[in-house]
């Protein structure tokens, strides 16, 4: 009988009732796979042989030949570029290789298997037929799942492979197949699936190999159960020293969840193992430190800069921009003093999140403009998604440029954000999926391939959904809409909460300035400082209105008075 399932939760039941508590198998094939895709180090031993004494006569002969060759070149008509980069200049090696191309490899191309990867889930009969057509000498199940990994196939297709294998093997799926499926879950950031595979592995194996730990750590750090990834890191330490990637994932997860103490502890532990951290790890500390008013944190960031100097490490362009933004964030251009950040403290953020959930979401506008069933559907959707970086009010954004097709505007915005590897959520209405002159089906398919999407009933209000998703994703998450949300601010009970909401809104709402067909979307830069009267003791910074400039209540002044006490 054919067996096919749509969710891996049913897959839990396929395992035998007596879990095997042995060590997870570590196959060379699996190690190669994980090295290719996650940079896991394969340890090899090398024997060192002493060099033979230098042959002085031979060396003198080589020097003489070199001199002869140099004189011969000087006497020829061959020209040498006057602007050739020096030996150690960035890009010099590549230019040299381009000037001296290697001989082409005339070996025959590898024979390709005629089987094409399916683009939709198959049932057992269809997988049996595909296996019969397979002409390779390797194990078909391992081959097909590896091809899916290389092509980053969808989770649903890979899941149907596991269901087929389980149906033919008394409900058991081998470790190799399971860990490759886990790789796809991590790549696609399928949080719910990652947790399900984690539960299976935890019940079935007492220990995993390093690649399995690496995948689980990376996957769990983006979920509410991120602290369990730290326990996996401890398990890994019992066998080997964790890699810089393991530490990087744990540090990024700790910062994502606002636990800076854990992040610094892991960083010091990493250095204690004499491991050079990934530049991504160091960049994350600077990104988190924007606007942080803490001398201890400031000193630690300065220590990172010294670490770069002492180890001759060079930040990439993105990292350098993060350092520059941190250095310049909140500084008065007049006196150089640091002014108050627009970022909320962790305590302020949690307070505001609780008030929004209570006064705007629970019993507020959302209940009057949607059904309890739809609200439950949306909450479940958010619960099983990883934290988002950007939440988009799809209908609002699509209507920003009336002369353009609405679905095309949405595609342009989502595509630009997706190219930056940002996790994007698009909130929309169901009518956006109906083909018409303003909403093309192929455009919406492009949107759904590059972003997570939730389409509410046409009568529902978008803003409360947007607030819920943004706040649920964490303090790093930004949102895009031209709605200023004055109604929702008015729902808040007191001036303090309204003030915090406006501050949070200024630091998280992205505005689109312009769009040119076939070109980039231009976003307005979010200010890094709070526009309020503030003092540092020996200085005052006072935002003030300009004469003849009308300012609405939801706007802030752009002019500042800088007062600094002379000593």
TrEMBL record:
Per the record, the GO terms for biological process are: mitochondrial tRNA 5'-end processing; tRNA 5'-leader removal
Q: Keyword Transmembrane on this protein?
A: no
| Chief site of localization | mitochondrion
What would be one Gene Ontology cellular-component term for the protein?
mitochondrial ribonuclease P complex
Q: Which UniProt keywords apply?
A: Hydrolase, Magnesium, Manganese, Metal-binding, Mitochondrion, Nuclease, Transit peptide, tRNA processing, Zinc
Ranges for domain PRORP come to 328-562
| EC top class, as a word | hydrolase
Q: Which InterPro entries match?
A: MRPP3_PIN_dom (IPR033495), PRORP_C (IPR031595), TPR-like_helical_dom_sf (IPR011990)
Catalytic reaction equation(s): Endonucleolytic cleavage of RNA, removing 5'-extranucleotides from tRNA precursor
One Pfam match, given by its short name, reads PRORP
What's the EC number here?
3.1.26.5
Q: How does it assemble?
A: Catalytic component of mitochondrial ribonuclease P, a complex composed of TRMT10C/MRPP1, HSD17B10/MRPP2 and PRORP/MRPP3.
Q: What is this protein called?
A: Mitochondrial ribonuclease P catalytic subunit
Naturally occurring in which organism (per UniProt): Catagonus wagneri (Chacoan peccary)
